[in-house]
Amino acid sequence: MRAKWLAALVMLPFALVFCAFQVAPLVWMAVHSFNSEIDGWGIDNYRQILGSPFYRQAIAFSLQITFWSSVFGLLIALVGSYSLRQLGATRLRTAVMSFTNMTSNFTGVPLAFAFVILLGTNGCVTLILRRYGLLGDFSLYSKTGLMVLYTYFQIPLGVLLLYPAFDALREDWRESAALLGAGKVHYWRYIGLPVLAPALLGTFVILLANALGAYATIFALTSGNFNVIPIRIAALVAGDLELDPNMASALGMFLVLLMVFITLVHQWVMRRSYTHVRA
């Protein structure tokens, strides 16, 4: 009993910090999201978000960039993690994992600057591709360009999250499947991917959250001129034209509710998969 009280006492500072920097801001944001500067208390902020084409466009752009960058990042990370696992305990794998760990933190202004140098209007890769007619109408500052940028910083995080999941795949399963006449496609369809499904779903949810709330990179790249939810929130809190922290709180709660919905769907799918496995 004394050990439990001592552990609780040690955790008390962490609990206080967590409440001060996580719970309290969330409660403040939830309460003020129902306070409109024009109409007072109510759901007018949410009604304005859903009724405004401008805010609906921000929501659509955010969801599109988030979803596709998470899908592409997950697929590339899956292939990369499997390839690293196949390398075995080599120096190359150690070097690649160290590089991946480093690049997972390469975001914000440095990442935007790097992409401007590479794929900007006069970037070195852009000039090379344009010279040979391979670029088309691609623009780094468009929705497609932002998907490429987001996918890039999703890949290292996806590799770090998926790489340990391959420990669950035992080599004797592959050998047994081969002895029973199963090819590589059948092995991955009926054994490999079902075993990796929880890790894939969990990684996908984390990548969604990582992209949905990204702000520094897109702001540094577009100077706040691209219409996505984080840019709109920042403009309402610290913009030069119109300040409305209550509307920003409503937009922030929209992101929170969206992530809660995604998490609940993830948990529901996981429960169904576990139930199916037990059956």
From TrEMBL:
SUPFAM superfamilies: MetI-like. Pfam families: BPD_transp_1 (PF00528). It is found in: Cell inner membrane; Cell membrane. The chain crosses the membrane at residues 65-84, 105-129, 149-166, 187-209, 215-238, 250-269. InterPro entries: MetI-like, MetI-like_sf. Residues 59-266 form the ABC transmembrane type-1 domain. PROSITE patterns: ABC_TM1. Its main location: membrane. The keyword Cell inner membrane applies. Keywords: Cell inner membrane, Cell membrane, Membrane, Transmembrane, Transmembrane helix, Transport. It is a multi-pass membrane protein. It comes from the Bacteria. One of its GO terms (cellular component) is plasma membrane. GO terms for biological process: transmembrane transport. Belongs to the binding-protein-dependent transport system permease family. CysTW subfamily. PANTHER family: INNER MEMBRANE ABC TRANSPORTER PERMEASE PROTEIN YDCU-RELATED, INNER MEMBRANE ABC TRANSPORTER PERMEASE PROTEIN YDCU-RELATED-RELATED. This is ABC transporter permease subunit. It comes from Acerihabitans arboris. The lineage of its organism: Bacteria, Pseudomonadati, Pseudomonadota, Gammaproteobacteria, Enterobacterales.
